Amino acid sequence: MPEVRVDPLSGLKTIIAAARADRPNSGLSVTPGEPLDPASDPFLPGHEDETMPTLYTDADPWTVRAFDNRYPALTAAADAPERDANPDLFTVQPATGAHEVIVNAPEPVASLSELSVEQVVRAVDGWRERMRAHVDRPYRHLIVNEGRQAGSSIPHTHAQLMALDFVPAAVARERERFGAYAVRTMGGNLLADLLQEEVRRRERVVAIDSEAVLLTKFASSSPYHLMLVPRRSRTHFEHEGPTGAALLADGLRRLKARFGASPPLNLWIRTAPGGAEHFCWRIEIQPRLGQPSGFEIGTGVHICALAPEQAAAELRDL
């Protein structure tokens, strides 16, 4: 039977309706993408002049490289827009910050799942280094979009870092829930306690290694929605300590094995925003196996057509 679940971290609701996976054209399949054309790949070594100037490399020759986005959503010195005559209704502010591209590997591949574990570790270390470069910003949001359906315009595997001069409402809401939980439990950490209970129950755990735990979300927004959580609670991803990169590589390979090809997906890192006294970082992976409908867009309530427990069991067995 369908049921409404509440995400413990955000408070947002999801409808788990597993029977909908049986409808025609349900979307729970993946078509392999075309191989990349090296001649037209601007992120290959030797093509550095096709991008903005290099900000960071991990080695010489590089295996991870960062540079400013040529089409940024945020700029370091944006002009202040003209103040509206009715600012209570029409608030405008400059979109200041930073918007970088981080090439995850020199190999011309479209997915992190096609890289060696060692290269994924190097890529994640590069993400951390670039996040550290913007610690003065209130929030740093790192994303990986894989596949055109997930918003990627260049197929070569890469991440984007957006360093914001404000804390997004969704992140601020989580900050408040972490703080309220700490008050209610006399210092408890919301995600650490959630992880402990998930490991005790095991029904949504996919894999565990020495650094992190990979599990499906209790209130998954879509089928195979994964969350990677450090075994020892830490507020900021960009601080020293384990990154969970090897388990991240493992989870992406499990998704690839499940569908016979890497699915289009969105990956993001949630790190502690400015003003957060209680928090724990995590990485989320959300395969894009269908498009949101008018219900989801209009209400903000997701419908997940596969029980997270079933998704975890399938991925655990691979």
TrEMBL record:
<protein>
    <submittedName>
        <fullName>DUF4921 family protein</fullName>
    </submittedName>
</protein>
<feature type="domain" description="Galactose-1-phosphate uridyl transferase N-terminal">
    <location>
        <begin position="3"/>
        <end position="168"/>
    </location>
</feature>
<dbReference type="InterPro" id="IPR053177">
    <property type="entry name" value="ADP-glucose_phosphorylase"/>
</dbReference>
<keyword id="KW-0548">Nucleotidyltransferase</keyword>
<keyword id="KW-0119">Carbohydrate metabolism</keyword>
<dbReference type="InterPro" id="IPR036265">
    <property type="entry name" value="HIT-like_sf"/>
</dbReference>
<dbReference type="InterPro" id="IPR001937">
    <property type="entry name" value="GalP_UDPtransf1"/>
</dbReference>
<dbReference type="InterPro" id="IPR005849">
    <property type="entry name" value="GalP_Utransf_N"/>
</dbReference>
<dbReference type="Pfam" id="PF01087">
    <property type="entry name" value="GalP_UDP_transf"/>
</dbReference>
<keyword id="KW-0808">Transferase</keyword>
